[in-house]
């Protein structure tokens, strides 16, 4: 024990004398050399930092590590500084590696690796202490929203170093926020981000997430679910009949209404007229027996809640009673003005057939007249067929008169 104590005392005395004695000339000023290498360190408060001083080409010179106040932490493998948080990890001719446990903000600064050559060589390792922010706090201006309204939310990340970055997500879409950074008295940063957006009914139940990005933490976030009220969505469903609505049949309609809050009542009205007196309305159901054409018109289902009012229309057209041989009809709801459409189609078809027949007839007649177009002899010339010779034929053809010109008629 005495020898160990004497060795330590001798080392401390050597350090004191070595640091106190000035070097001659310019040699007393250390220089930064590429022969001595170290690395900057970022460490989360409370964790461990490793400082490594490495020599590429060592000529048996002494390596030592100094703190930001230039106090010697390690001289070779000896630790003069009375701070047990520093521990020797490795010592050789080419490296001095030291650990610092339970790092605090006061440990931040520039550490010096020094090699005793002439002149001395130095390299610097900056230790940066990261302090994670507290749990993010998300607040909303409105707890319950109505579709189409604008709302505002804030997210705060307190007491971090360096300042955190805040992002906003609504579902899978990123929204832009407006950040504000404040430096507190203890040299910490508090960041607040403000988000403003307009909600729709699709946002009901959607999470709005505040994501805090900081080198000391990962997946740091807070979220709040939206509650959005919206006016009813209304849809009329035809329960019966499945095809065309015809005289004498029954009609049954169901009004489906969904909203937030859920509409308590739905009303049936007939646009520009009264609902038939014998129609039966039960909640969202409308039932009409023994249809006739006097019931034609637009039937509207109206639903309302505290947010607003919505409606859906059904256009009724009652057809004549279908013949027994008539093929199946299409849905009547899709056929507003369907009778006029059917009549026009039939008339158009007939006209097309007539026009086509007339065109065919004109073509046939034209081809016929084209083939028979030319000259023909009159009845007076027909007697020439019975003549014995040419002279007699001419006399018979001319009725006993000589005429060198042949009589012709043209049929046009």
Number of strands: 28
What share of the residues lie within helices?
A: 10-25%
Instruction: Note the overall shape.
Output: elongated
Distance between the termini: 149 Å
**Mean pLDDT over all positions:** 82
> Any low-confidence stretches, pLDDT <50, length ≥5?
1-28, 324-342, 375-382, 397-412
Describe what this molecule looks like in 3D:
The chain contains three helices and 28 strands. Strands 1, 3, 5, 6, 9 and 10 form a six-stranded mixed beta sheet that branches. The model is unreliable at 1-28, 324-342, 375-382 and 397-412 (pLDDT under 50). With 412 residues, the chain is an alpha+beta fold. It has helices at residues 2-20, 338-372, 390-398; strands at residues 31-32, 36-37, 41-44, 49-55, 63-66, 72-75, 86-91, 95-100, 109-115, 121-130, 137-140, 145-146, 150-160, 165-170, 173-175, 178-183, 189-198, 207-214, 217-225, 228-240, 251-260, 266-270, 280-282, 285-288, 297-304, 309-316, 375-376, 409-410. The chain is elongated and about 125 Å long.
Topology, please?
Layout: H1 2-20, E1 31-32, E2 36-37, E3 41-44, E4 49-55, E5 63-66, E6 72-75, E7 86-91, E8 95-100, E9 109-115, E10 121-130, E11 137-140, E12 145-146, E13 150-160, E14 165-170, E15 173-175, E16 178-183, E17 189-198, E18 207-214, E19 217-225, E20 228-240, E21 251-260, E22 266-270, E23 280-282, E24 285-288, E25 297-304, E26 309-316, H2 338-372, E27 375-376, H3 390-398, E28 409-410
Parallel strand pairs: 1-10, 3-10, 12-20
Antiparallel strand pairs: 2-4, 4-8, 5-6, 5-9, 7-8, 9-10, 11-13, 13-17, 14-15, 14-18, 16-17, 18-19, 20-21, 21-24, 22-25, 23-24, 25-26, 27-28
């Amino acid at each position: 024990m005495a020898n160990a104590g004497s060795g330590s005392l001798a080392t401390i005395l050597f350090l004191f004398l070595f640091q106190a004695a000035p070097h001659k000339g310019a040699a007393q000023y250390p220089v930064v050399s590429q022969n001595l290498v170290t690395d900057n360190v970022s460490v989360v408060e409370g964790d461990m930092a490793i400082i490594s001083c490495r020599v590429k080409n060592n000529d048996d010179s002494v390596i030592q590590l100094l703190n930001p106040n230039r106090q010697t932490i390690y001289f070779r493998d000896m630790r003069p500084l009375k701070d047990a948080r520093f521990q020797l990890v490795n010592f050789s001719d080419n490296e001095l590696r030291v650990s610092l446990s339970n790092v605090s903000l006061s440990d931040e600064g520039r550490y010096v690796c020094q090699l005793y050559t002439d002149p001395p060589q130095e390299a610097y390792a900056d230790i940066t202490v990261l302090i994670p922010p507290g749990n993010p706090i998300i607040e909303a201006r409105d707890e319950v929203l109505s579709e189409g309204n604008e709302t505002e939310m804030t997210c705060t990340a307190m007491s971090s170093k360096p300042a955190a970055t805040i992002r906003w997500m609504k579902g899978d879409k990123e929204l832009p926020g407006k950040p504000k950074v404040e430096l507190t008295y203890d040299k910490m940063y508090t960041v607040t981000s403000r988000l403003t957006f307009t909600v729709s009914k699709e946002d009901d139940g959607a999470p709005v997430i505040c994501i805090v990005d900081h080198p000391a933490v990962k997946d740091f976030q807070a979220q709040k679910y939206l509650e959005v009220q919206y006016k009813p969505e209304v849809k009329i469903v035809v329960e019966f009949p499945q095809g065309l609505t015809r005289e004498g049949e029954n009609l049954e309609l169901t009004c489906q209404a969904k909203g937030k809050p859920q509409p308590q009542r739905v009303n049936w009205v007939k646009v520009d007229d009264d609902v038939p007196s014998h129609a039966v309305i039960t909640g969202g159901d409308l039932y009409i027996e023994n249809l006739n054409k006097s019931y034609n018109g637009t039937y509207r289902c109206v639903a309302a809640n505290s947010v607003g009012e919505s409606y859906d229309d059904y256009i009724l057209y009652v057809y004549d009673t279908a013949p027994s041989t008539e093929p199946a009809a299409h849905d009547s709801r899709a056929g507003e003005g369907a009778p006029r459409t059917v009549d026009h189609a039939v008339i158009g078809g007939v006209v097309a057939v007539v026009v086509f027949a007339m065109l065919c007839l004109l073509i046939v007649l034209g081809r016929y007249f084209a083939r028979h177009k030319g000259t023909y002899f009159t009845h007076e010339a027909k007697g020439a067929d019975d003549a014995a010779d040419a002279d007699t034929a001419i006399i018979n053809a001319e009725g006993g008169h000589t005429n060198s010109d042949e009589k012709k008629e043209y049929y046009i």
